[in-house]
Design brief:
By secondary structure, the chain is α+β, with helices and mostly antiparallel strands. The protein is built from six helices and 21 strands.
Length: 370
């Protein structure tokens, strides 16, 4: 159900800020939503979230404006917020939170006026990991940092919750100067009336990939062999070298050449160059939502999980988050883009070290500091 009033987004904003303040050891005096404050003159101003807190013995006031808009905030709306701040007594700090981002004019004005601007939105699904046809990946399950779990009211949540991600090593090999070593003894017995001394190492014709046994059955693939060569090279810690694979069993290629349509080969060789990258990304595992809270000026980002009920209460893009409990271990998946085609790979997971996460009430009730 859509919330056209934006009140639920305001509640979510309050909850996230409350969590951050609690983590930063700031003593909250009071947090209120949807209140009206008297300006310096006759004007009164409706405030989304009013926050009064204390650092040391000094009390501070913060005014938060939250916009659950699909479109970005423009300069005109930011100017209105600036005017409200200037009209309020005690010079409160201004914070603007938007789900749809900001236009350049709004960003520039906020920075100029000292207004903190944040983006609070659903996290985008991570892109597929790109692999070449003979590339491969090594996946390690790791704990991922999250700043809290957002729920509604007394919704039951496991006390043994884990945030998970993948550390992915991607190896994309490239091959050049691919050739095969032709068996001279086989050539001489197969073509006794021809001079085959010049037929030794030949370049592999384009499109030739299948490898056959002496009975004409396909038993392997040249690119599978090349991948094995590349993996062996990577295992040695090298990224570039000419490598040779020797066939232990009788192996043949179909060349498509009129004179020698079928050749027995002893080995295959190629110049191998491996591109190795490593990255850590969130896994797609459960129905938990993921919310990004990003400071626009400095770029620092905090991540929050939200329970399924929050997704119903405040509709999201339904991006699932990674989590695991000891009570309900799960398998997880990650998408790879292999030669332009999406492939989903499922992996069994082992339990990492626990990372207890604070549980937050998304309703964002008014609170009083203790």
């Amino acid at each position: 159900m859509n919330d056209k009033t934006g009140k639920r987004y305001e509640g979510l904003t309050q909850t996230v800020f409350q969590a951050i303040v609690n983590q930063d050891a700031v003593r909250t005096i009071s947090v209120q939503r949807n209140i009206t404050l008297q300006g310096k003159g006759k004007l009164k101003h409706k405030i989304d979230v009013y926050w009064k807190y204390e650092i040391g013995d000094v009390a501070y006031e913060t005014i938060v404006e939250a916009k659950d808009w699909k479109t970005s905030v423009d300069k005109g709306r930011m100017s209105q917020f600036r005017d409200v701040l200037k009209d309020l007594p005690n010079q409160p700090k201004g914070i603007f939170v938007s789900r749809g981002g900001y236009q350049k004019g709004a960003r520039d004005l906020a920075i100029e006026e000292g207004i903190l601007i944040y983006e609070l939105r659903e996290a985008d699904a991570p892109p597929s990991v790109t692999l070449s046809g003979t590339g491969w990946g090594q996946i390690k399950l790791v704990s991922m940092p999250f700043d809290g779990v957002i729920s509604i009211g007394d919704e039951p949540i496991s006390n043994n919750l884990y945030a998970l991600g993948f550390e992915i090593d991607v190896f994309n090999p490239g091959y050049s100067n691919i050739n095969v070593d032709v068996s001279q003894s086989w050539l001489q017995s197969e073509y006794p009336h021809l001079d085959v001394s010049a037929v030794n190492k030949i370049e592999v014709p384009h499109g030739v990939s299948d490898l056959y046994n002496e009975h004409g059955d396909v038993v392997n693939n040249l690119f599978t062999v090349l991948q094995a060569i590349a993996k062996d090279l990577a295992a040695k810690g090298a990224t570039e070298k000419r490598e040779i694979h020797v066939f232990e069993q009788p192996t043949f290629v179909m060349t498509g050449l009129p004179m020698f349509p079928r050749l027995k080969i002893n080995s295959a060789a190629a110049d191998v160059s491996i591109e190795h990258t490593r990255e850590t990304r969130r896994a797609q595992m459960s129905s938990f939502g993921q919310w990004i809270f990003r400071n626009i000026k400095f770029g620092n980002t905090r991540l929050f999980l939200s329970t399924p009920s929050v997704g119903t209460w405040l509709p999201t893009k339904n991006q699932s988050a990674s989590y695991l409990t000891r009570e309900h271990p799960l398998s997880c998946s990650i998408n790879f883009l292999v030669d332009g085609k999406d492939v989903t790979i499922f992996a069994d997971i082992t339990l990492p070290s626990p990372q207890p996460l604070p549980l937050l009430d998304a309703v964002g009730k008014d609170v009083e500091g203790k």
